[in-house]
Amino acid sequence: MPETTLADLAHEVRSKNAGPFWVTMELFLRDADGYRIAADESFLNERVIAELYRVEEGTIQIFRIPSLNVVKISFPRPVSQGSLRDRDMHAGQHHVPLARMPVRQPADHDR
Q: Per residue of the chain (111 residues), what is the pLDDT tens digit?
């Protein structure tokens, strides 16, 4: 059976500029069960994002919005938007590693 990822739990996983110096990623989860998994601080936290994106843990902001089943993550861009070394000017591809994160399936006794 294929591994379940965050993308499987979401309507949409996207990333975008939050100004020329920040990236924001958003997970729009399909339902409360998916939100519960994605919003779990032991699963998705600043340390995980820091390792995934090679950014300083202390610069990451995570917003959990249960009424919308949304998790929003922001961190400084590695280089400013439009600079010579900018490989993704609109930050439109930053969401891919997040979307591909595998999620642990709850055991029957966890449900």
A: 678 999 999 999 999 888 888 999 999 999 999 999 999 999 999 999 999 999 999 999 999 999 999 999 999 987 778 777 767 776 667 788 899 999 976 544 454
Burial class (CB in 10 A: 0-12, 13-18, 19+), 107: exposed
Contact 13, 7 (CB under 8 A): yes
Which residues are paired to 12 by β-bridges?
Answer: 28
Tokens at residue 81, please?
């938007």
Domain ranges of the chain: 6-101
The CA distances from residue 5 to 30, 37, 87, 103, in Å, are 13, 11, 25, 5
CA 60 to the chain's CA centroid: 11
